[in-house]
Write a structure and sequence with these properties.
single chain, 173 residues, alpha+beta, 4 helices, 4 strands, globular
Length: 173
């Protein structure tokens, strides 16, 4: 079993929020999701200072996915400490407290980060698997120079990819 990190916890909340928000928008399955009372996480993410953009998708295999781009670690931390994020943690994990060192593995000056969170809904909960998902994955990606775009990119226009050749070496000026 993998140890959950603060990055994982942050993105689990993002994915579960998207999942529940999208389920609530679909025709009710026995009205089970009608009164979920879940905040609109996509709108809250988009309103977070330093969030460059958010996209959602459903894959052919049935995964529901959130792509969220942040300027940097500082921007991701603004989401982490937001009232919406804290409310979701309290709603789904009432005894859990926020980490004292969230995103510890993300460099402070690392530039933009894309968070990709995917989940496959568990439509048939059982005693053995009562969780709302069958599969969940949270991954972080750094943009790289190169590639090709015609007429636009998947990443938000606001996201700037740093040029590694312009970096000043540590201790230099």
């Amino acid at each position: 079993m993998r140890k959950q990190t603060p990055v994982t916890n942050l993105l689990v909340i993002m994915v579960l929020g998207s999942l529940l928000t999208s389920l609530a928008a679909e025709p009710p399955i026995g009205d089970k999701t009608k009164d979920v009372g879940f905040p609109d996480l996509v709108a809250a993410l988009k309103a977070t200072p330093g969030c460059l953009g958010v996209e959602t998708a459903k894959t052919e295999s049935g995964k529901q996915v959130i792509f969220a781009w942040f300027e940097d670690k500082k921007a991701a931390l603004k989401w982490y400490y937001s009232d919406t994020h804290k409310a979701v943690i309290k709603q789904f994990f009432p005894n859990r407290k926020l980490s004292d060192h969230p995103l510890a593995g993300v460099p402070d000056d690392g530039g933009p980060v894309m968070a990709v969170a995917s989940v496959t809904v568990n439509e048939e909960r059982t005693k053995e698997n009562p969780r709302p998902f069958k599969q969940i994955a949270i991954e972080l990606y750094k943009p790289l120079r190169g590639g090709l775009s015609l007429g636009g990119r998947f990443a938000p226009d606001k996201m700037k990819v740093p040029d590694p050749s312009r970096r000043v070496p540590s201790g230099g000026s």
